[in-house]
Design a protein that fits this description.
Length: 449
């Protein structure tokens, strides 16, 4: 029995579960999609909350620029660029027999400064929020101060009284650990068994305490939470439920809008924008998608991508069980090469709040992630980590779907011919070159010469 039903009963009531259990690549387009004007109300956060988060990041810009000089060129704002992928698009169109039209682009969060992944948005934002709350309450900062004063021994000694802890498969730990340690916090990262050695080494070199677990992400998070709860000086960054992480991600949307405008890309009903977001626990893609829906309304279509071995969000939303179900409940092993996506149980908060806002979900095999990793490098010269390729199949999934989705949301052939497809490249910029060569070698074996 699985949550009160036999597997055969689950297959009868929810046929796609068979594909998930058999680890077949699958897509599910959301039959409950609703207009943004209605469905945004399901999320307990508002445009004002995102604007506050954006303003907070601006207040910190003078500090960030000082302590991370690589951000100086962008005025201390941690942001990534967008770039077109014409050669990759041509190859994918040929592979899948796609109609010409539309344009494929990449959001290069893989190359965000400081931690080289999308976690440099939410993770760093939450640490900065916590630091600001403490500094204002403790008299270290007054409203209106230049936050560059936080780059001082006095400030570091102040933050040194406090602790920040997080459970992570790797990238969140890097962002939280590096930012916390730089401010002066005592930082602890609880890491799951699948976390890469170089990430642990990097954190330790920044003075972060790394606690290693033999088990998966959920256990690392639960242990970290337990240890933090018994310590009032410790702030635990809760990847499964944090609204601060979520808001840090959501700020991406207004910035993307500026970048699209600068690239002369129109987004409206006649020129839809599709965004393909790799999903682990859901906070990152959920936050970005929330911001995108606030910014572009029904003209943006957000689709989540997961590994075939860790389809936790698809399973949670499709069954309506959300965080009450894990992939392991169905015998799916949650073992994948896609760092950051090896999550067996989704955030309950994201799946529930966003179930009428997201257009769809699909899964990708690890082998395909490696193949696309090599194809991306060969066609565009861009190096990403496996998880960051999960968004690449999205365009073909949308254009080839047979579930009535395109008709349901009014995506005519003419509109699709004017579409922009944006792959959210979530990580890879800090992968050591030996690791990257190994990824590429694996992927190239799957490509024709
Ligand atoms: C964490 C991560 C994601 C997904 O973010 P979640 O908030 O866990 O859903 C995607 N890609 C990479 C590289 C990540 O590190």
């Amino acid at each position: 029995m699985i949550l009160g039903k036999t597997l055969e009963n689950w297959y009868a009531s929810h046929p796609l579960i068979r594909d998930l259990v058999e680890l077949k690549e699958t897509s599910w387009f959301n039959p409950a999609i609703a207009p943004a004007s209605e469905a945004l109300g399901d999320v307990c956060l508002t445009a004002q909350d995102v604007a506050d988060a954006s303003a907070r990041l601006s207040r910190y810009a003078s500090y960030i620029m000082r302590v991370f000089p690589e951000t100086a060129a962008n005025g201390g704002i941690i942001e990534s660029g967008i770039r077109p992928l014409p050669a990759l698009q041509a190859l994918l169109a040929q592979e899948h027999g796609l109609q010409p039209g539309g344009a494929l682009w990449l959001k290069t969060d893989s190359h965000l400064p400081i931690s080289g992944s999308i976690k440099a948005r939410g993770g760093i934002y939450e640490v900065l929020k916590q630091a600001e709350d403490l500094a204002l309450a403790g008299g270290l900062l007054q409203a209106g101060d230049d936050y560059a004063v936080l780059d001082s021994d006095k400030a570091r000694a102040f933050f040194g009284q406090y602790k920040i802890a997080v459970g992570s498969t790797g990238n969140l730990g890097l962002s939280i650990g590096i930012m916390s340690a730089r401010l002066g916090f005592q930082a602890t990262v609880h890491m799951s068994a699948d976390a890469r050695q170089w990430k642990k080494d990097k954190l330790r070199s920044h003075g972060v305490t790394v606690v290693e677990y033999a088990s998966d992400y959920s256990v690392a998070v639960a242990e970290g939470r337990k240890q933090a709860e018994s310590d009032p000086a410790c702030h635990f960054v809760d990847d499964e439920n944090s609204t601060n992480l979520f808001l840090g991600y959501a700020v991406a949307a207004e910035r993307l809008k500026g970048q699209l405008t600068a690239a002369n890309i129109v987004v409206d009903a006649e020129h839809p924008l599709f965004v393909y977001l790799p999903c682990g626990v859901g906070g990152g893609p959920g936050g970005v998608a929330f911001g995108l829906k606030l910014t572009f309304g029904d003209a943006v279509h957000c689709i989540f991508a997961e590994p075939t071995h860790s389809p936790c969000m698809l399973l949670g939303v499709y069954t309506g069980l959300h965080d009450a179900v894990s992939v392991q409940d169905f015998g799916i092993d949650n073992v994948t090469a896609a760092d950051g996506l090896a999550v067996g149980r989704p955030s309950g908060f994201v799946g529930k709040a966003m179930q009428r806002l997201l257009d769809g979900y699909y899964t990708v095999s690890d082998e395909e992630l490696y193949r696309l990793l090599a194809l991306m490098e060969r066609s565009e010269g861009i190096r990403l980590e496996p998880s960051a390729l999960a968004g690449v199949p999205g365009m073909a999934r949308v254009l080839g779907e047979q579930q009535g989705y395109r008709a349901r949301v009014g995506l005519s052939a003419e509109r699709l011919a004017h579409a922009t497809h944006l792959v959210w490249g979530t990580g890879g910029g800090m992968v050591p070159s030996a690791e990257m060569e190994a990824y590429l070698a694996k992927g190239r074996q799957l490509l024709p010469d």
